[in-house]
Design goal:
Blueprint: E1 4-9, H1 15-22, H2 24-28, E2 32-37, H3 40-49, E3 55-59, H4 67-76, E4 83-89, H5 93-101, E5 106-110, H6 114-157, E6 169-176, E7 184-192, E8 195-203, H7 207-225, H8 231-245, E9 252-260, E10 265-271, E11 277-279, E12 285-287, E13 307-310, E14 316-320, H9 322-325, H10 337-347, H11 355-370, E15 379-386
Parallel strand pairs: 1-2, 1-3, 3-4, 4-5
Antiparallel strand pairs: 6-15, 7-8, 8-9, 9-10, 10-13, 11-12, 11-14, 14-15
Length: 387
């Protein structure tokens, strides 16, 4: 433990010897480290020379700069970890009152009772320890806040910046990050002139680790998908890489699909993600058939399975993360999958709504349901319509 550095400011030349004698045990044990100045000006110079001085013991009546003026100068430093104890003649209440008004932490009277002075120093150190603990906690909170800001920036940076200008598909995605950053992401990209790849995912955990794992997952899926691999090949390969590099047992739920314009089909793998909803051109609502796959990043060598379904003109896919279905209101009720289905049946069916409008309808309904309650998870929606 570092020594507490104490600056004694007094024009009595023999005080240095007396202090060193009276506190020789604490000095020898490394508990206290004393520095000395003969007036206020010398004290200010010493504070620059030894910036981590934490306690000043100062007389009031001194040449060149007195103790009360020194107090005013110390106050201007605005250092919460620098406390001043004033030494004043017994009964000099006017100067003591002035000193306390100028920021003195405590006072002792002259002639100095060294037992009382030791108690006063210990009390001052206790106050400093409380302040140090509070400032350390404050710094930790600032660090956490900074980490969350970085995580949010990572999250925003990986989202698609441009929507492909297609005459056969209308695409829109939205991600509203919670305060405690999770790892939601979505992406879409043209593989060739007639195939569109798209993905939505949700990484386990929170904060910077989740944001980094999310960015890695999305990048691997995009890079592999752009090579033209099938959803099964893509998931097998990405899962192997994530299992190899994963730390802290993190994993990611993923729905990855490829729309083929020429065949009018959608081939997909659902790796433990929330089941999307298909709204057919005839108005029928269907939940995507499960493919009985586990999440990515847990079991290396697992062979994923795919499904292929028709996806024709005026069909719509609604993809979402559990931030939608698990959103809570003030009564701790979940929004739920059934509520989402009911909204789509009453709002989308029979209406020629754009992907953007469908996405907006979902997020606004969730916001209305939660009644302003703080969001605990990212809310992500991806809508794809054949046009």
């Amino acid at each position: 433990m570092a020594s507490e550095k104490i600056l004694v400011v007094d024009d009595e030349t023999d005080l240095q010897f007396v202090i060193n004698q009276k506190f020789r045990r604490q000095i020898r044990n490394g508990q206290y480290e004393f520095h000395f100045a003969f007036n206020g000006l010398e004290a200010l110079a010493k504070l620059i020379e030894v910036p981590d001085i934490s306690i000043i013991l100062s007389d009031i009546n001194m040449p060149e700069m007195d103790g009360l003026t020194l107090l005013s100068k110390v106050r201007e430093l605005k250092n919460p970890l620098l406390k001043t104890v004033i030494c004043s003649a017994y009964g000099d209440m006017e100067n003591i009152r002035t000193a306390m008004n100028r920021g003195a932490f405590d006072f002792v009277t002259k002639p100095v009772d060294f037992g009382d002075l030791e108690v006063t120093i210990e009390k001052t150190i206790q106050e400093l320890d409380v302040l140090r603990e509070g400032l350390a906690y404050h710094d930790k909170l600032l660090s956490i806040e900074h980490d969350l800001m970085v995580a949010r920036e990572i999250q925003r940076a990986i989202l698609p910046k441009h929507i492909p200008d297609l005459n056969w598909a209308d695409i829109y995605g939205s991600m509203d990050a919670a305060k405690q950053i999770g790892g939601d992401f979505y992406d879409f990209f043209l593989i060739d002139d007639h195939r569109l790849g798209f993905v939505i995912g949700d990484v386990s955990g929170k904060g910077i680790p989740a944001a980094i794992f999310m960015a890695v997952s999305r990048t691997l899926i995009r890079a592999t998908g752009l090579k033209g691999m099938s959803p099964v090949e893509c998931m097998n390969y990405v899962n192997h890489l994530l299992c190899t590099e994963s730390v802290n047992s993190m994993f990611v739920t993923v729905f990855y699909g490829i729309i083929d314009l020429e065949s009018g089909t959608l081939n997909y793998v659902n790796a433990g993600h929330n089941p999307p909803i298909l709204i057919s051109s005839g108005g029928k609502h269907e939940v995507f058939p499960l493919t009985n796959n586990i999440v990515l990043g847990v079991c290396d060598g697992r062979e994923f399975k795919s499904q292929t379904i028709p996806f024709i003109k005026n069909d719509t896919i609604v993809l979402y993360t559990d931030g939608i279905t698990e959103a809570l209101n003030a009564r701790l009720e979940e929004y739920g999958f059934n509520t989402l289905q009911d909204l789509l049946k009453t709002t989308v069916t029979g209406n020629d709504m754009s992907s953007r409008d469908i996405c907006k309808a979902i997020t606004e309904d969730v916001a209305h349901f939660t009644e302003g309650e703080e969001q605990s998870d990212d809310i992500t929606v991806l809508i794809i319509r054949r046009t």
